[in-house]
Design goal:
The complex is a heterodimer.
Chain A lengths: L3 E5 L2 E2 L2 E2 L2 H12 L4 E8 L1 H8 L4 E6 L6 H11 L5 E5 L2 H13 L3 E6 L1 E6 L2 E8 L4 E8 L4 E5 L15 E4 L12 E7 L13 E5 L9 H11 L2 E4 L1 H5 L20 E5 L5 H4 L7 E6 L6 H4 L2 E4 L2 H15 L1
Chain B lengths: L1 E5 L2 E3 L22 E3 L1 H17 L2 E7 L5 H10 L3 E5 L9 H14 L4 E5 L9 H9 L3 E9 L5 E7 L5 E7 L2 E5 L11 H6 L7 E2 L1 H4 L7 H4 L2 E7 L8 E2 L4 H14 L5
Parallel strand pairs in B: 1-4, 1-6, 4-5, 5-11, 6-10, 7-10
Antiparallel strand pairs in B: 2-3, 7-8, 8-9
Classes of the chains: A alpha/beta, B alpha/beta.
The structure holds flavin-adenine dinucleotide (FAD) and adenosine monophosphate.
Chain lengths: 319, 263
């Protein structure tokens, strides 16, 4: 029997997120014959956009800021008990999905990077653990439905837009959409920093491998030698060694340099998710098995504390 | 304010190279260095700061084995008032829902205003907090990077969202919050601090004490199971520069020049 799969559509400023098309592809990896329904809590414009790629769109009309608590209640009201629900694994999806699975009494799998079909009522899933250092196959019992969070960017979208889908208004079935125990107040925008790394062509990016704030000096020297700007991974900002505006990643800046030097950075998807435009990535890491080496173009296994000063010197010598 | 913080003992990925065991059933655990999940230290620090400001107490709890006691002691050395170990053979092999169900039973024995979890642990899931909240029917916010706890009915919390922006919410108590790194600077714990709490008694609760049916948790209750581990292969992988340091440096500078990496 073909599965009924639902895809939760994230959107912003009246436009569907990139993940909208990725979830549709993911659904067909679960079951090629599945009937896939997009769920849009939002405007007609988003529904129409999404209907180009999904045969069916369920609409819940709302102009409100997406509040996971409210949306969870609405989804529980409209979804069939054994539904398979796909949700993007972004900050909203992380807020919504685990609790949704409890309320639907279904299985939950987070941050899925691969899907290998259904066998004997179990969905075979690929995930990563230990910051991407080990991959694992997970078997998920879908007999009572499942909520599956899909990593953004893990599935290549199908851009053909030939679905010509219909929009079904489910607003009446969704129940009361007012906020109760959790009330949205406002969004506080990130502060601008000294440099705008989103405009940099050369980024010298430093991660936890730098070990100590004082060692940042060698990174500054290399950046000066190559004529680039210093950026970093999240732990450097958490430790308050560099300002937030220099953080590359999903919760930091999205950068589009020509060349990206990743120094002592392991290569988590939240970090790599902030690097766009296919730059030339050079990774220096002391661990030959660091995941960054699978994503970089060029790799050097070395201790950055020794290698970076040598590199700066060589650049100055050969410039 | 009575605060419960859920903590987990995990392999320290910055200290270890993670290897997969011979038959691919697990990672190689023999020589691993373990520590407290990074996110949980931020959660405990936040709890301690709130307690020191408005009064109350901080309890740390973990679902684990005897060795997990060490992470409870570490968090007590940081300043948590009490530790509780939830341990039973029946808990082995629990999925996220199982862990949340075990924690829920312990929450119901207490009288907590706020429950903290970390935003994420070694399994990269970020699921236990949201599940626990839904099971308790408490409001929930994930990825919390700011807490303003001045009221005993409701608190204001900031959630981290994409692009470094922050979403502010007002949440009714009791609630569950998952804490994101960077919310504070967790204090350092020295060996002396650990010694001070070395002999404090830590109660252990099993399935029977918690009134949990053994087949509802553990492997028996799990809908989600890891079947095998393997080394990830993503893309083609980098071209690795090899040779003497000087050869590597020379080649690297040449490439950087070619690709526009030197101005
Ligand atoms: C919701 C959410 C959002 C997030 N957003 C972001 C984000 O925007 N940006 C971001 O970066 N992270 C983000 N993270 C965190 C992310 O998951 C990782 O924890 C983080 O990227 C790891 O940073 P890192 O690579 O510097 O540190 P680690 O993962 O600790 O890696 C350090 C690396 O340095 C190497 N190393 C150590 N010493 C040396 C040495 N002397 N020489 C050479 N190499 C050395 C190690 O082998 C290791 O590979 C987010 C997490 C969550 C949950
Ligand atoms: N075994 C456990 N015992 C106590 N708390 C846990 C356990 N596993 C996960 N948690 C909590 O849930 C958070 C997120 O973990 P996870 O959902 O597994 O990614 C952790 O930071 C802990 O606060």
């Amino acid at each position: 029997m073909a599965q009924q799969i639902f895809a939760y559509i994230a959107h912003k400023d009246g436009k569907a997120d990139d993940t909208a098309l990725e979830l549709e592809v993911a659904a067909r990896k679960i079951d090629a014959d599945a009937s896939v329904t997009a769920i849009v809590v939002g405007s007609d414009a988003v529904c129409d956009e999404v209907a180009a790629s999904y045969k069916e769109v369920w609409k819940i009309r709302s102009d409100a800021y997406p509040n996971a608590e409210v949306i969870r209640k609405a989804l529980v009201s409209i979804l069939p008990a054994d539904a398979i629900v796909l949700v993007p694994h972004d900050t909203f999806g992380m807020d919504l999905a685990p609790g949704l699975s409890i309320k639907l009494d279904s299985a939950f799998v987070a941050d899925v990077v691969g899907l290998e079909g259904i066998e004997d009522g179990n969905l075979k899933i690929v995930r990563q653990e230990y910051s991407g250092m080990a991959s694992t196959h997970v078997s998920c019992d879908i007999s009572g439905g499942a909520v599956i969070n899909i990593r953004p960017g893990a599935f290549q979208p199908d851009e053909s837009k030939g679905a010509g889908g219909s929009v079904v208004d489910k607003t009446g079935d969704a129940g009361d959409l007012s906020e109760t125990t959790r009330r949205f107040l406002e969004v506080v925008e990130a502060e601008a920093g000294d440099v705008d790394i989103t405009k940099s062509e050369i980024l010298v990016s430093v991660g936890r491998g730098i070990e100590d704030q004082d060692n940042l000096e060698i990174i500054n020297e290399l950046a000066e030698a190559v004529g680039g700007d210093v950026s970093c991974s999240r732990p450097i900002v958490d430790a308050k060694w560099l300002e937030k505006a220099r953080q590359v990643g999903t919760s930091g800046q999205t950068v589009k340099p020509k060349v990206y030097l990743a120094l002592g950075i392991s290569g988590s998807f939240q970090h790599m998710g902030g690097i766009k435009g296919a730059p030339y990535i050079v990774a220096v890491n002391k661990n030959a098995k660091a995941p960054i080496f699978q994503m970089a173009d060029l790799g050097v296994v070395a201790d950055i504390l020794e290698f970076v000063p040598e590199l700066a010197e060589k650049v100055n010598e050969m410039k | 304010m009575e605060i419960l913080v859920c903590v987990k003992r995990v392999p320290d990925t910055s200290e270890n190279e993670i290897e997969i065991n011979k038959d691919g059933t697990d990672i190689e655990r023999d020589d691993l260095v373990y520590s407290v999940n990074e996110w949980d230290n931020y959660a405990v620090e936040e709890a301690i700061q709130i307690r020191d400001k408005v009064g109350g107490s901080v309890t740390v709890v973990t679902v684990g084995d005897d060795e997990s006691e060490e992470v409870l002691r570490r968090e007590m050395a940081m300043g948590a008032d009490k530790g509780i170990l939830l341990s039973d053979d029946a808990f082995n092999g629990s999925d996220g829902r199982g862990i949340a169900a075990i924690l829920k039973a312990e929450v119901e024995k207490g009288n907590y205003d706020v429950i903290f979890t970390g935003a994420l642990a070694d399994d990269g899931a970020g699921q236990v907090g949201g599940m626990l909240a839904a099971m308790l029917d408490y409001p929930y916010a994930s990825l919390v990077n700011k807490i303003d706890a001045t009221d005993d009915k409701k608190i204001n919390v900031g959630r981290e969202i994409e692009g470094g922006n922050q979403e502010m919410n007002e949440i009714a108590l009791p609630c569950v919050l998952s804490i994101q790194t960077g919310i504070n600077e967790p204090r350092y714990v020295g060996i002396r601090g650990i010694r001070k709490v070395a002999s404090v008694e830590i109660p252990t609760h099993g399935a029977g004490d918690l009134g949990i049916a053994a087949d509802s948790v553990g492997e028996a209750g799990a809908k989600v199971k890891c079947t095998d581990y393997f080394v990830p292969e993503m893309g083609e992988g980098a071209e690795m520069l090899e040779g003497s340091t000087d050869e590597i440096l020379e080649e690297l500078v040449k490439r950087l020049k070619e690709k526009g990496g030197i101005k």
